[in-house]
Amino acid sequence: xxxxxxxxxxxxxxxxxxxxxxxxxxxxxxxxxxxxxxxxxxxxxxxxxxxxxxxxxxxxxxxxxxxxxxxxxxxxxxxxxxxxxxxxxxxxxxxxxxxxxxxxxxxxxxxxxxxxxxxxxxxxxxxxxxxxxxxxxxxxxxxxxxxxxxxxxxxxxxxxxxxxxxxxxxxxxxxxxxxxxxxxxxxxxxxxxxxxxxxxxxxxxxxxxxxxxxxxxxxxxxxxxxxxxxxxxxxxxxxxxxxxx
Length: 245
Hints:
Directly interacts with tubulin-gamma; this interaction determines centrosomal localization. The chain is mainly α. The protein is built from 8 helices and no strands.
């Protein structure tokens, strides 16, 4: 009776689940404690059998969770509780938490490109830059990077020289350079016209034709004088002729 009384005190404890204690009902004879009160655990064998089944199922659940964990997080160390006779709920919770953590990390890294996506990117690069093999991808990348750096520096310098905003597109730079070339060509034409003393293109042509007619005989005359006077410098022609007088 002392043992039964001790069990009854445990069952009546505030920490005990309501399932394991029921007050005796009806005419069923219940065990009597020393105080003459009903023990209230006539149904306990059925509850213990239920718990035994649940404990066995707990082991099976633990085994299934371990298999799932090995599939999802194989890099995790083996659970030190695997060889224990009794499995605790905390052991199962630990495995579930590890799996949930891995799933959350995968969701966070969901934006990472997959292998097919990376393969498609490399193939697209090969098509754009005419690379026949994978071995040529890195050299061509370096070449493209170098050329891009040179072009970027050139465009930056042109923006500064032309006093353009850094956000001006290349088309604006090209148009500005074209206008400068037009201005330079126009100035050169004016300078040639001023040099030749004419504003007419036909007059320029006539001047050039006159030059072609006059210059060859004049050059031949000068060469003959240099030979005849036995001198090599044009500046010496006049002094030599004066001395001959």
